[in-house]
Amino acid sequence: EVKRTITVRLSEPEGKIDLTVWGDDGEVIDEVSHPYKQAPGTPITVPWSQKESEVMGRFLLKAWDVVGFWSGVRSVTFMNIPHEDVVFESGKHDIRPTEERKLIEPLGRIHAELQKVKGVLPITLYIGGYTDTVGSAADNLALSRRRARAIGQWFRKRGIRVPIKFQGFGESVLIAQTPDNTDEARNRRASYVLAVAQPPASRGFPTKTWNVIP
Questions:
Q1: In a 10 Å sphere around its CB, with 0-12 CB exposed, 13-18 middle and 19+ buried, how is residue 149 labelled?
Q2: CA triplet 152, 154, 158: central angle to 5 degrees?
Q3: Per-residue pLDDT tens for 108-142?
């Protein structure tokens, strides 16, 4: 099992925190009741446990005072951000000005989701890049990495201040199964995911070699 934590600051000096964590499949991962007694505003760290293969999908946190009143926050903590994919020129990773409009809408969605958990959860934006099968597998892997990095840099320059990590998967995760050297637009894509913990290796993210956007 892997130990995870959420850190909160409360105005009450004494009480308890109830935390329920669900996976991205809707099943409960863990339920925790955490009593506290300390000065108001002091950081309180609430731990929970999950299997390494589990992905935290959402949580509900309730903070109770000693007389039975509570306040809480509910959040989705593993979210795929829907978007229209940027079209890159063949073999290139530069984002053309005509394609930037496809990043503006997901940028707004990312900002909105981050605002919901501001000061409550440490969120990271993960960007995965994918290609079709035109060209060698090695070249496609490097190209998808450069394209994912270019998207991450674009988001960083437009005000995303949380950690941004990127990774290229080349032609290893095809949406449309094709023979080698097949031009298929559906396979030239990217994924944008907001998450509390690093996504485990899976069909969509087959490796864990994430790089960081400064």
A1: buried
A2: 115
A3: 999 998 988 777 778 899 999 999 999 999 999 99
Q: Report d(CA 88, CA 66) in Å as an integer.
A: 58
Torsion from C-alpha of 147, 148, 149, 151, nearest 10 degrees? 90
Q: Is the Cβ–Cβ distance between 61 and 38 less than 8 Å?
A: no
* Contact present, 130 and 112 (Cβ < 8 Å): no
Beta carbons of 88 and 188 less than 8 angstroms apart: yes
Is there a contact between 118 and 200 (Cβ–Cβ < 8 Å)?
A: no
* DSSP state letter for 136: -
CA 29 to chain centre: 18
CA 168 → CA 43, 106, 146, 149, 157, distances in Å? 37, 19, 7, 9, 20
pTM of the model: 0.74
Burial state string for 99-134 with b = 16 or more CB within 10 A and e = fewer than 16: beeebeebbeebeebbeebeebbebbbbbbbbbbbb
